[in-house]
Amino acid sequence: MSRRSGILEFAVLGLLRESPMHGYELRKRLNTSLGVFRAFSYGTLYPCLKTLVANGWLIEESGGAREEALAAPLAGRRAKIVYRLTAEGKEHFEELLSQTGPDAYEDEHFAARFAFFGQTSRDVRMRVLEGRRSRLEDRLEKMRASLARTRERLDDYTLELQRHGMESVEREVRWLNELIETERAGRDQRRPDSDGSAQQDSTSGESGGLPRHGDSTRPDPSDDTAT
């Protein structure tokens, strides 16, 4: 399985965990909710759905009696197929959510993982965020070293492009720092009260109180300028 198809399968399972959907609805949600899938075709989605069905992680169902009645008078028109997550599919998705290996830090995969942080445990969120930050800090160090070596040989426009790329990475590192601090603050809230009772369990998939910004300065993890 390619990395790209693996990310798509992960995203499809995550969306169908929320509710069953038609293929068209899935494609729309992938386009609008997950930036990493801004542009992809039905020719990419449907083979993925067929693979997930073959693996037993999804089942295909009829779109319902009302849609069948509407489709029947139209020659050659079939009722829409609804895709539903199976128990095995839910278990597989939860297993994927728990993984915190290097793939989780890569640009495209991180964007998809972050979109489902609401369903991810706090400890896993922390490991993914810290791994992503470490990956970007390494990238930033290499970019700075490269710029220092080549600065004298670059024209003004190429130099400005490299600076823009560095600023994008720096902005995402600052954003990750904010998220990590928020997660840590939420974890601290789990300490017992003075009467010995524990506070709300924050290992569930609750958001942990993400920082809210009045503007739209939060970086898009799938932004090509951060690569």
UniProtKB/TrEMBL annotation:
Residues 196-205 have a biased composition (Polar residues). InterPro entries: Metal_resp_DNA-bind_regulator, Tscrpt_reg_PadR_N, WH-like_DNA-bd_sf, WH_DNA-bd_sf. The keyword Plastid does not apply. Residues 12-95 form the Transcription regulator PadR N-terminal domain. Residues 182-194, 212-221 have a biased composition (Basic and acidic residues). The keyword Transmembrane helix does not apply. Pfam families: PadR. Keywords: Coiled coil. Residues 126-167 form a coiled coil. It comes from the Bacteria. Residues 182-227 are annotated as: Disordered. Transmembrane segments: none annotated. PANTHER family: CONSERVED PROTEIN, PADR-FAMILY TRANSCRIPTIONAL REGULATOR. This is PadR family transcriptional regulator. It comes from Streptomyces montanus.
